[in-house]
UniProtKB/TrEMBL annotation:
Keywords: Hydrolase
Histidine triad motif, short sequence motif: residues: 255-259
Domain of life of the native organism: Bacteria
Entry keyword Magnesium: no
InterPro entries: AP-4-A_phosphorylase, Histidine_triad_CS, HIT-like, HIT-like_sf, SAM-dependent_MTases_sf
GO MF entry, a single one: hydrolase activity
Pfam families: HIT, Methyltransf_23
Residues of the HIT domain: 163-270
Signal peptide: none
Protein name: Diadenosine tetraphosphate (Ap4A) hydrolase
Length: 292
């Protein structure tokens, strides 16, 4: 089974005018501030929007590979997700969440006219390319038989009425590390160590074991990405990873969250035993005992 799609760039089309999703958003005055076209293909939208004195940068791994610097008020991502495999889609959602300013908005245009999903031979280039139907859990602001446009905002910037769970309605001033379609990560409000992060599924559920396998996997995918960010930012010497399930195990908020705690040489006198320390008397192994 293929897990990569090396020829997805071949689906980029030559155009002589602004794309349809860009025209819709421009007419609605939604392309504001510092703008990024993520997956810009051959760059026609960037060219046209620049001519309208919009501050826009284009990024495409194949055609414009210089990775964007800083954060953006508006991010455009048109027809990119339709030609990516699931893991690649998640990576794009995560990257865009990181590049978006806390109060910014991203717009995803996805095709609604796809009749066949999977790999096929491109008619012009004669290479295997991939396409799929994409549905997102974000606000839909436009749809016809050919295209749907979703508006994305950071999870903690959307206020939910009559919701008291602090992880379903996180503070808007908390730093959101990154976000996927089904999970997000923030720094712990009362960190054990520098870089202490929480990975949280968006679904309200108190017991980790009641999440579906797909939901659990989404959390671990995000955790791996957060670990890379924390490593680059804080340079820790190790990590503890833990989940508290039920009050007797120390859970204080009835919503699943995974702790990713960076560890540093000398942060405790005797680190031996690690997570065994949840029961202090059992943390250290008996002397002369062989661990296999």
């Amino acid at each position: 089974m293929k897990n990569t799609n090396p020829y997805n760039h071949l689906t980029a089309k030559e155009r002589d005018k602004l794309s349809y999703p860009a025209r819709i958003l421009l007419n609605q005055n939604k392309i504001k501030g510092r703008v990024l076209d993520f997956g810009c293909g051959l760059g026609k939208d960037v060219e046209v929007l620049k001519s309208k004195e919009i501050e826009i940068t284009g990024f495409d791994k194949h055609y414009f590979p210089e990775y964007p610097v800083g954060k953006f008020d508006t991010i455009l991502c048109f027809y990119v997700l339709n030609v990516l495999l699931p893991e690649e889609q998640t990576n794009v959602l995560i990257e865009i969440s990181r590049l978006l300013k806390p109060t910014g908005k991203a717009y995803f245009a996805v095709r609604r006219d796809i009749k066949y999903e999977g790999f096929r031979t491109h008619k012009i280039h004669q290479k295997p390319t991939y396409q799929c139907i994409v549905k997102l859990g974000y606000k839909s602001i436009f749809r016809n038989e050919n295209v749907e446009i979703y508006e994305y905002r950071h999870f903690n910037q959307i206020k939910r009425k009559n919701v008291t769970c602090p992880f379903c309605n996180p503070d808007s001033d908390r730093e959101l590390i990154l976000e996927s379609a089904t999970a997000y990560a923030i720094y712990d409000k009362f960190p054990v160590n520098n870089g202490h992060a929480l990975i949280i599924p968006k679904k309200h559920c108190s017991d980790y074991f009641q999440l579906s396998f797909k939901e659990q996997s989404a959390c671990w995918f995000v955790l791996n990405k957060v670990k890379e960010i924390i490593t680059a930012k804080f340079n820790p010497d190790g990590f503890n990873v833990g989940i508290n399930v039920n009050r007797v195990a120390g859970q204080t908020i009835d919503h699943v969250h995974i702790h990713l705690i960076p560890r540093y040489s000398g942060d405790v006198e005797i680190p031996e035993g690690g997570v065994r320390g949840v029961i202090p008397a059992k943390q250290r192994y008996p002397k002369n005992d062989v661990i296999k």
